[in-house]
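Hallway conversation turned thread

IA: we were arguing at lunch whether anyone had actually written out MFS transporter end to end. Turns out nobody had. So, for the record, here is the sequence (442 residues) and right after it the C-alpha cells. Reply here if something looks off.
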Amino acid sequence: MTLRSGQHPLTSRLLLAYALPAVVLAALALPLYIVVPTFYVSTLGLPLGAVGFMLLAIRIVDAIADPAIGWLSDRISARAGRRRTLFLVASAPTALGAFMLFWPPDDAGLAYLALWGTVLSLGYTGTLLPYSAWGAELANDYSGRLSVSAWREGATLIGTVCAIGLPFAVGDGALSSPVGLQPLAVFVAVFLPFAACVAFLCVPEPQDRSRHRLSLGDAGRFLAANRPFRRLILAFVLNGFANAVPATLFLYFVGQRLEAPQWSGPLLLAYFVSGLAGVPLALFSARFLGKHRAWCIAMAVACAIFAVAGFLGPGDVYLFVAICVATGLMLGFDLVLPPAIQADVIDQDTASSGEQRSGLYFAAWSLATKLSLAAAVGIVFPLLALAGFSGEGNNSAEALNALSMLYAWLPIPAKLAAIALMWRFPIGEVEQRALRQKIEAM
C-alpha cells in the first residue's frame, strides 16, 4: 500500500519494525495492571486497601504528566524526529522501572511500590505516547490506519501471550508468584531497549503537516471543540472501565470464585490467543461495516456473553473457558478499532487548527485509559473490602457473591453507554477522505 503526500509505503518490513516494541510493552502492561496488585497483596503481604489506594495515587500522578509528555512529543525539535527521539529516550527508564517493580526484595513495602511504580508508569507513558502518535501518522487513509493499528495491536497480543507463557516455560506457571514475575522483569529489561532501537532505525518519521504552532490555550480550545473526539474519548473511558474491572479482579475470580487458581494462566492464554484471532475479524468487519459500527457490535456481543460469568461457581471452569474464548475474540475489536478511529479524529483537529498535534490527542487518550484503570482499582477494591472480601481467601458466600457481581455485571452498563455514544459516530471513510483532502490542500 502506497501513501500520499510523501508518506512512506506501508511495507510488511516497515510495519513489522514499528510493531516490534508493542510486543515488549504488552508483556510489561499485563503484569503492571493485572498481576502487580495481587502480587504485592498476596505474596508480599501488603494490605489490600493500601495497595489499591497507592496504585490509584500512582495513576493520578502519571495522569497529571500526560499533557506535558504529549505537548513535548508535539513540540520537541530533533533531527531524528520528534516522535522517534522521545520514544527512544523514554524506553530506558521504562525498562529499569519494570525490572525493579517486578523483582522486588522480600521486604519491599508501600514506599518501594510507590517509587518504582511511579518510575515505571511515567516511563511507560513517555514511551507509549510518542509511539502511538508515530503510528497514527504513518498512514493518511481510512484503511491504511486499520492496517497500522492491526499490526501494532496484533503484536500487543503476542506480547501478552508471551507474558502469560513465560512463567510456564521457566517456572511454576503462576503469574502472581516471584517465579512468574522475575522472568518478565528480565524480558522487559533486555528486549525493550532492543525493540526500541530497531523501530528507531527502521521506521521513518512521517511528515509533520502543521502550518503553525498554537498556544497552549488555543490548543486546548480546539481540542475541546472537537465534537467527534469528545464522543470517542467518553466512549473509550466507559469501555476501558468496563474492561478494567474484570481485568483487576480476574485472579481473585478464578482463584476464589471458581476455586481453580491453577487455571489462571491457561485461561488468560485462551483469552488473549482468541484476541489475536479476533484481529483479522475486526479488520474484515470494519472494512465491511465501518470502524465505529463494527466496534459497537463487538461490545454488544461481549456484554451478552460475559454476563453469564456472574452465575458461575466452583468447578465451572470449562464454561468459563468458553466465555474467555468468545469474549477474547471481541478483544481484538477493542484493541484495533478505537486507535484507528482516533487517528481519523485527529484529522478533524488538524483541518480546523492547522497544527498536527497527535501527541496531545494521544495524551488525552492515555489519560482516559489511566482514569478508567484507576477508577476500576480505586472503586472495586474498596467495595470488595466493604463486602468483607479478603485477598488471602476464606471468604464468606456474601463476599464471593459481591466478587461475582462486580466482576461480571458492573462492566455491562458502561459498555452499553459506550455503544450509545458510538453508534452514529460522524466520521466514516467518506468523511475522513474529505478531511485529508482539506489538510493536503492547506
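OS: looked through it. The domain at 12-204+218-441 is CATH 1.20.1250.20 (Growth Hormone; Chain: A;).
IA: good, adding that to the notes. The CA atoms of residues 269 and 289 lie 29 Å apart.
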